[in-house]
Amino acid sequence: MLIAAATILVGFIVLIWSADLFVAGAASIAENMGMSPIIIGLTIVSLGTSAPEILVSITAALSGAGELAIGNAIGSNIANIGLVLGVTVLVAPLMVHPSCMRVELPTLLIVTLGAGILLIDGRLSMLDGSLMLAALGFILFQMVRSQSRDETLLEEAGEEPLPHLRPLRAWLTFFVGLAMLIASSRMLVWGAAEIAVGLGVSQLIIGLTIVAVGTSLPELAATIASALRGHTEIAVGNVIGSNLFNLLAVMAIPGLFKTMVLTPHVLDRDYAAMSIATLMLAAAIYIGRSRKVAPAGHSYVGRSMGVLLVSFYCLYYYWLYVTI
Q1: Cα(116)–Cα(113) distance, rounded to whole angstroms?
Q2: Is the pLDDT of residue 196 over 60?
Q3: In this structure, which topology does domain 2-323 adopt according to CATH?
Q4: Of the candidates 33, 41, 3, 72, which has an alpha carbon nearest to the alpha carbon of residue 222?
Q5: Half-sphere exposure of 249 (CA within 13 A, CB side)
Q6: pLDDT tens digit sequence for 18-28
Q7: In this predicted model, what pLDDT tens digit does every residue of 226-244 receive, in sequence order?
Q8: In whole angstroms, what is the distance from residue 108 CA to residue 123 CA?
């Protein structure tokens, strides 16, 4: 147990560090090839924070620990809303851009409903996974196209710091980051599986808790940093984008390797909690449009919502405890 716990700790540290290396290398390669810094910020950097979840999901699926990957996807989404956005709103209230309310947030609500419909039979098949990935590709294309025409988001994305590495160093950083991502994800999955056996709980529970919180740490750091710089539109966008990626890529990956039979709690407890958290966030954003402190068309999400989100996150953990 102690060796497994130490392996998880080291795995998390290396995973987060290697994700930064991977993103820095990929962004610099794209810049050296002539890609616009704006598009790099909206694609590579935004999606790079989901690299830990993706690698953990692939490694878990290859290791026969698909439940851990599914728990990681759902648990990360709950953590992104309840912990990441909840804590961020407590630090700095958020202003949500109109385009987020018109495009990104409705997309997340539709995807949450759609993925739930695919899983309602209690199985995650290759067809389900393929449909999820196809939907992700279409959504990313539409989001980049719409956001690349939004002047406010372009201005904020242009102010986000991007790495600038020479070609040789960029490629070296990219491959070192990728190799360390793979190695650290294997360490994390092994340690999580050993902890599950030692505690006598399912890999799903470990994925929903330890792994989900650990892989959500990059989102927490990135979102708080963006909010403190006043880039609240990007802060909210990071969480919505990450949740879409978790639902349509991270959760889809195990189904591509073999059909997963889901335990009943995945739908009636975990997916339900994730859906409730998503609805809470949507309600707060839409209600916030009536706040006088918000500029025209924007929505204001204040600290009281941060308290509600963090409280819900704590209640979910209590729900997990009483239903194990």
Answers
A1: 5
A2: yes
A3: A middle domain of Talin 1 (1.20.1420)
A4: 41
A5: 21
A6: 777 877 787 78
A7: 677 666 666 677 788 888 8
A8: 22
Cβ pair 323, 269 in contact under 8 A = yes
Q: Would you state the pLDDT for residue 112?
A: 95
DSSP-derived letter for residue 95 is E
pLDDT in tens, 99-149: 778 888 899 999 999 999 999 999 999 999 999 999 988 987 777 676 555
pLDDT digits (tens, 9 = 90+) for 145-186: 765 555 555 555 555 556 677 888 888 888 888 788 778 877
Asked if 319 and 273 count as a contact pair (C-beta separation under 8 A), the reply is: yes
Q: What is the largest CA-CA distance in the chain?
A: 55
Phi-psi region of 123 (alpha: psi -120 to 50; beta: other; left: phi over 0): beta
User: What single DSSP character describes residue 165?
Assistant: -
Q: 3-class DSSP state for residue 301?
A: strand
Q: DSSP state, 291? A: -
Residue 176 has what pLDDT?
A: 86
Q: How many of the other CB atoms lie within 10 Å of CB of 307?
A: 13
Tokens of 16: 């987060």
Residue-wise burial string across 37-68, b where 16 or more C-beta atoms lie within 10 A, e elsewhere: bbebbbbbbbbbbbbbbbbbbbbbbebebbbb
Three-state DSSP string of 196-259? HHHHCCCHHHHHHHHHHHHHHHHHHHHHHHHHHCCCHHHHHHHHHHHHHHHHHHHCCHHHHHCC
Q: What residue type is assigned to position 186 of the chain?
A: R
Query: Residue 94: beta bridge partners?
Result: 301
Question: Which residues, 6 or more positions from 312, have their beta carbon under 8 angstroms from its beta carbon?
Answer: 82, 86, 276, 277, 280
